[in-house]
Amino acid sequence: MSSVLYDAPGPKSRARSRLISVIGTIILAAGLLALIVVLGLPKTSANGAVQPGLWDISRWDVFNDLLVWRTLGFGALATLRMAAVAAVFALLIGVLFSFGRLSASAWIRVPTTVLLEFFRGMPVLLMMLFILLVFATGSFWAGVAALSVYNGAIIGEALRAGINALPRGQREAGLAIGLTPVATRFRIEFPQAFRQMLPIIIAQLVVLLKDTSLAFIVGYNELLRAGLNQLANFFGDQYKFSFFFIVLAIYLTLNLSLSWLARRIAKRTGPQAGSVTTDSAAPVDPHLGDPHAVDAESRSHASQGG
């Protein structure tokens, strides 16, 4: 079996690939184990005092305090709250950007392209600071606005690519049965493009969740600020690594859960479920409301109009 770009690997190539994978895994595991051992070794400060290693029990007894877990829980909820609100706005902005970029009118398409490229090129942190200083929206809405606009620009480009990848006959058939260009875009092209691009969109939402940590700079009390600022300052620097480790574990749990969801959706919306072919895809019938219920007369009209 071979693809367009390369031949399928043979038995020797597959065996070599497995061997390289095993060796690489062993090297990574050995490096991680060495790092854990080094971090656990006691250290001597400049004044000669011996400090316990980072895995010493004296650096972790703070987690017996319920206040610590309550603070981390509130920080995690604040992070999820910002991510959820920003995700909704990012999707809406992405839809607007995609339709603006695909507009037939240059008066809409060109300004949309300029704004999209500007928002894609501007760092999220600078955008947060700009919104906070200029509009005085507060730390929460400064973070939400910056995350929404930036990720909305990325999602908009993904949706535009999905619409452009559809067969041309999809739009022609919609116009042929009497739909307006806007209705054709919303009722025929956009649902198919959104389904095909859904794994990419969810992957971008994972990035959005991670970028909520940037709101630490504008003073929003999210997970990173709660763990490495409030708790570390209250209990002392000796626990800073412990708080860092727990915050990292929470972030990894959240992000890996979303990544797992993205992989599941990618499998369910692969070529068998999400692809569009000219044989199976049918235009939307505005009278029947069923995207697959198109009578013979409408099909004939579509073929003559195409």
TrEMBL record:
The keyword rRNA-binding does not apply. Residues 76-262 form the ABC transmembrane type-1 domain. Signal peptide: none annotated. It comes from Cryobacterium lyxosi. Residues 271-306 are annotated as: Disordered. InterPro entries: AA_ABC_transptr_permease_3TM, ArtM/GltK/GlnP/TcyL/YhdX-like, MetI-like, MetI-like_sf. It holds the Pfam family BPD_transp_1. The chain crosses the membrane at residues 20-41, 80-104, 124-150, 241-262. This is Amino acid ABC transporter permease. Keywords: Cell membrane, Membrane, Transmembrane, Transmembrane helix, Transport. It comes from the Bacteria. One of its GO terms (biological process) is amino acid transport. It is a multi-pass membrane protein.
